[in-house]
Amino acid sequence: MSHVNADTISCRMCSADALFSFRRKVLGKYEAGYYLCPACGLLQSESPCWLDEAYGEALAAADTGVMQRNLWLMKTTAVLLQLLGMQGGRCLDYGGGHGVLTRLMRDHGFDFHCWDAHAKNLFARGFDGDPEASYDVVTAFEVLEHLADPQAFFDGILGRMKPDLLLVSSELLHEPVDPDWHYFYFATGQHIAFFQQKTLAWIAARYGYHYVSCGSLHLFMRAPRRTAVIRLALRFAPRIYPLLGFASMTAGDHRRMMRERDLQGDD
Q: Global pTM?
């Protein structure tokens, strides 16, 4: 159902009335309205009827930075978890694509598992995650702006799972809203929810979490931690990374996969 001519829609984060902001063409053919919630600050598209078409493939051909981005996220996450003493935690990469980051994190000694509703885990096979299970750490990179139901996402993770840490990435919106902001990516149709600092603060308060934001990275914490250490890790991870040592799980994972293969061969 299209809401193009509606003055308000129900906010998909907090259920308040979100007010019409502007209209743009998505995927070159769908006229879509965008609505800003004055209560939580979320900017969202109208109900996105175009998502099946937008996600015709899990990895867009134009995403040439996928490997470079995963290497940067690996260094940042590894440094952050090491400095916070979370080396032994059970971790989920939510929306982890084909498992590249999960494999990289396991290669650095972190017990990561991968889950993605739109992609097959190819690089970390045998280490599939379960969004209904419990984890100490959850990462969700390049996920927030894709959420058709952000309330369900945060209810499931911060409300039910309650990890010690949730690390997400997204470029933040600033008001007044600029309809020509590059991050809308109208041509792809995949970005449908846009967060600002006000939204992150609302989420943290709603679920009883603390949060630290640094650039495009945002960390939600069940208990307050050393903000200076977190900002140092998020901002300077590539420089800190070579100074730290990591205990790889690569060989152990290989032995585990070989044992499972042998056991399957005996069936």
A: 0.93
